[in-house]
Write a structure and sequence with these properties.
It is a single chain. The protein has one domain (about 30-45, about 60-175, about 210-335): Rossmann fold. The N and C termini lie far apart (about 55 Å). It is α/β, with parallel strands linked by helices. Helix content is about 40%, strand content about 10%. A 6-stranded parallel β-sheet has the order 2-1-3-4-5-8, sandwiched between helices. A two-stranded antiparallel ribbon has the order 6-7. Bound molecules: 2-acetamido-2-deoxy-beta-D-glucopyranose (2 copies). One 2-acetamido-2-deoxy-beta-D-glucopyranose (NAG) binds near residues 122 and 129. Keywords: Disulfide bond, Glycoprotein, Hydrolase, Signal. It is an enzyme of class 3 (hydrolase). This is Palmitoyl-protein thioesterase 1. GO terms for molecular function: palmitoyl-(protein) hydrolase activity.
Length: about 350
Amino acid sequence: MIFCSEFKLVLLVACLESLFELSYSGLVNQNSRKYTFTLNYFEDGPVFENGPRSLKTNSSSTYIPLVYWHGMGDAGVHVKHALRFIEEQLPGVYVKSVQIGDSIADDVKSGYFRNVNDQVKQVCEEIKNDTNLRNGYNAIGLSQGGQFLRAVAQRCPNPPMINLISLGGQHQGVFGLPKCSAPKQSWCEVIDKLLTHVAYEGWVQNFLVQAEYWHDPFKQEQYVKNSVFLADINNERVKNPEYKNNLQKLRNLVLVLFDSDSIVEPKESEWFGYFKPGSDKEIVRLEDSPLYKEDWLGLKAMNEGGKLHFLSSPGDHLQFTTEWFTKNILSPFLNITS
Ligand SMILES: *[C@@H]1O[C@H](CO)[C@@H](O)[C@H](O)[C@H]1NC(C)=O
Ligand SMILES: *[C@@H]1O[C@H](CO)[C@@H](O)[C@H](O)[C@H]1NC(C)=O
């Protein structure tokens, strides 16, 4: 077990952050190559060729506004750009793409090094402050942004989230670090070691985003007891009736799983399935889990009410075509007016 004084912790965080800075600036110079697994959404070619393009918002549009939350290694401004085809199909729709911090670099860094509970709190406040969202909004979470937006729905019911689209979100966490996309991998290796050995130590939980949804099936009890984010929003510890009540206010919860996902381990987490405690092979499906059978979050009730949708898309993590998205997500869930 690593012994960690306050001093050592400060050093470690500083070291991780500087390693991160190094790889990040290296990547920026290489023309955004780092965004391979988050920005390469579409099979039909690169989507980030000409830099972000600003899109005018049509304030007289009656489409329900959208809120996006980006994934790990990505930034709000890039997601808005990559998903611009949605705005083209919903002319004038208001879009807020979550950005944490004051710069793109900060925003990317927050995907690793800022306590998720603090991030959710901040995003709740921004949503509440945004008058364009006051009558409600649809939310699209990419990868870890999926579980973060679910936390927003459960903790901050006003203004109301109407439909939540989770694209490859890890609702039961992960056991395995997503492929590191950085060319300098040293900081990834440090994170990997932290997750494997000390994920449930308080000091790691407080600063490392991936530890906050790290779900080690061989340490189920420690996970339930110490996970500051995922075990909380999944009502594993305390059964918070507000979470259950608020989640059920959604009109639809749409869970998208990527059939050939090589990033999320196990990919079934995208549909709330997970490894059986004590195994890293056997999967327990949502319907067979206590979370569902005892209905800790209201998912059973939502499923029976036709509000829970399990969709799958062929391909790897976040690889989908605009045609697939339009047919399965945009037309049924986003093409609605207030
Ligand atoms: C704004 O949206 C409204 C309603 O969809 C539409 O009728 C109008 O043409 C749009 N205006 C512009 C400038 O795009
Ligand atoms: C929300 O609005 C309040 C009151 O105007 C302000 O103090 C606060 O900083 C805002 N919060 C965010 C996250 O924008």
